[in-house]
Design a protein that fits this description.
Distance between the termini: 35 Å
Strand order of the largest sheet: 1-2-4-3-5-6-7-8
Order of helices and strands: EEEHEHEHEHHHHHEHEH
């Protein structure tokens, strides 16, 4: 019997030391000879959020999904500075160590400001962007979700830190992020192991929470950089697909539509899902991603 092509390439689970005290945990799949797609996760998750998407892309692309420092199984020094600038520097070093020169990126939530910093630093490396609820516009910030975090930006008092700690950094709030906006018929598709792992790995201890609070406060720098991100869009005209969970309370549909101001050829599509849209609409999102990337020349 003649050999048959694999339905997908198996995912491998790896660690790459980029400094003596920093080791990036990442998932890789697909042949390294294929064009690379970098998957950048969001809060409070890790590369695990892409577990169902990776097999759908890996027959056609070389897929890399790192855990950002402070998430998943990536390790970092005790004095690591939890800012979005530093997360981007770390992922840039990761890509350099793997000799990844050009790539498309799939940005979600925290992955958006990390990925867009990479684009500002190395615009010629970015061949295309898929933004799945990855925001770059003020009108994309959903309220009241952002109210306590914006209060923290305006007044980083102990009281405001504790409001965010108690209101956001707990299992109930994590479940909310996974389930809010999900149609009732789709709720059984949300795997409880995903949000439980996120909480236990990334939010459970006071030290975990302190790291996350540092990033919540630093998120204000992302909003300050929105004009620079938008200038990059205008100047580069990078191909962009926004595929958006339309019921996301954190990043609302206006953020997806706003891309078209700076990228008139941007493609914007919505799926009937919440924030973690891959939990319930992974096949639909994969189809859109493959269709879009199929037209990109690396």
């Amino acid at each position: 019997m003649a050999p048959t092509a694999p339905l997908s390439y198996p995912s491998t689970y790896n660690n790459l030391t980029i400094t003596p005290n920093t080791s990036i945990s990442y998932i890789a799949a697909g042949s390294p000879t294929l064009p690379t797609v970098l998957l950048l996760h969001g809060f409070p998750s890790s590369s695990n959020q892409f577990r169902n998407l990776i097999p759908l892309l890996s027959n056609t692309y070389h897929v890399l999904a790192p855990d950002l420092p402070g998430f998943g199984l990536t390790t970092y020094p005790p004095d690591y500075d939890f800012t979005f600038d530093n997360l981007a520097h770390t992922i840039s070093a990761f890509l350099t160590a793997l000799n990844i020169g050009t790539y498309a990126m799939y940005i979600f939530d925290y992955g958006a400001p990390v990925g867009l910093r990479l684009a500002l630093a190395h615009p010629s490396s970015i061949k295309a962007i898929i933004s799945q609820n990855g925001n770059a516009y003020v009108e994309g910030l959903g309220h009241p979700f952002w109210d306590p975090i914006e209060a923290l930006w305006n007044d980083p008092s102990p009281q405001n830190y504790e409001t965010v700690r108690n209101g956001v950094l707990n299992l109930g709030a994590t479940v909310y992020q996974y389930t809010s906006g999900v149609p009732s018929d789709d709720l059984p598709l949300v795997n409880p192991a995903a949000y439980t792992y996120d909480y236990l790995q990334n939010l459970q201890t006071p030290a975990d929470q302190d790291r996350q609070l540092a990033l919540f406060y630093d998120y204000r720098t992302n909003v300050a950089m929105y004009p620079a991100f938008q200038a990059y869009f205008r100047e580069s005209q990078v191909p962009l697909l926004a595929v958006w969970g339309k019921n996301d309370p954190a990043f609302v549909p206006a953020g997806a539509e706003a891309f078209k101001r700076d990228l008139p050829r941007a493609e914007v599509t919505f799926v009937d899902a919440g924030h973690f849209a891959l939990e319930t609409k992974v096949e639909e999102i994969a189809r859109e991603t493959l269709r879009f990337l199929g037209r990109i020349e690396y």
